[in-house]
Design goal:
- The protein is an alpha+beta fold.
- The protein has 2 domains: 123 residues, Gcn5-related N-acetyltransferase (GNAT) (Aminopeptidase), CATH 3.40.630.30; 32 residues, no CATH class.
- It is 26% helix and 23% strand.
- Strands 1-2-3-4-5 form a 5-stranded mixed sheet.
- The longest helix has 15 residues.
C-alpha cells in the first residue's frame, strides 16, 4: 500500500465510501458494524457532506474527521462553534500519520472559519496535543415525552424526595462499594 494520500473535504459521491469506513472502522475490528446513516442521517445529506474531512489514498477513504458547525447562545451572546466527531483511521493505515495530518487540516479550517470554539469528546491526552482541553463537564438534555418509551410499571414510580429518600440513597451508595 502506498503512503501517499490527500486530505480534502468529502463530496456527495464519497457518501457510500465514507459510511463504509465509519460503519466498519469506528467500532473496532472485534465489534459489529455500526449504522451511522441510521443513527445520524442529518450528517450525511448532500449539503453537509463537505463537513467531513477525508483522507483519500488513490480513491480509497482511509480516514475521516467531521466538523459540524452550529451557533450556541450563552446569555445574550451567540458563539459560532463546531462539534468535532467521527475521528477515524482505517486499521490498515494506522501509524502513517493520518489522524495527525487530518487534525491539522481541521484545526486550520476552524481558524479560517472564525469559530469561537469547538468541542471534541475523546482521549484528552491525544486531542490535547492539537489544542483541545477539558472545558467543562455539564450537559443538559431535554426530550419530549413522545420520544420515550412508556414506563413498564407506572405504580412503582414517584417523584424523588431529597429529604425523604436520603437514607435510600446512602444505602444504595454503600452497597455499590461492598
Amino acid at each position: 500500500m502506498s503512503e501517499s494520500y490527500t486530505i480534502r473535504r468529502a463530496e456527495v459521491q464519497d457518501r457510500e465510501k465514507l459510511l463504509k469506513l465509519l460503519n466498519v472502522q469506528f467500532p473496532g475490528p472485534d465489534n459489529p458494524p455500526m449504522d451511522f446513516l441510521a443513527m445520524t442521517p442529518y450528517l450525511f445529506t448532500d449539503d453537509r457532506m463537505d463537513q467531513h474531512f477525508v483522507c483519500d489514498r488513490e480513491g480509497e477513504l482511509i480516514g475521516c474527521i467531521g466538523v459540524y458547525p452550529y451557533d450556541i447562545q450563552i446569555g445574550k451572546t451567540v458563539f459560532r462553534t463546531a462539534g468535532i466527531g467521527q475521528v477515524v483511521t482505517h486499521t490498515e493505515a494506522r501509524g502513517l500519520g493520518i489522524m495527525n495530518a487530518t487534525l491539522k487540516k481541521v484545526t486550520d479550517a476552524l481558524r479560517e472559519g472564525q469559530f469561537d470554539f469547538s468541542w471534541l469528546f475523546g482521549d484528552r491526552q491525544r486531542y490535547g496535543r492539537y489544542g483541545w482541553a477539558c472545558g467543562g463537564s455539564r450537559m443538559k438534555y431535554e426530550m419530549c415525552d413522545k420520544y420515550l418509551p412508556a414506563p413498564e410499571n407506572v405504580d412503582r414510580l414517584r417523584p424523588f424526595d431529597p429529604a425523604g429518600d436520603f437514607d435510600l440513597v446512602l444505602n444504595s451508595l454503600a452497597n455499590m462499594h461492598t
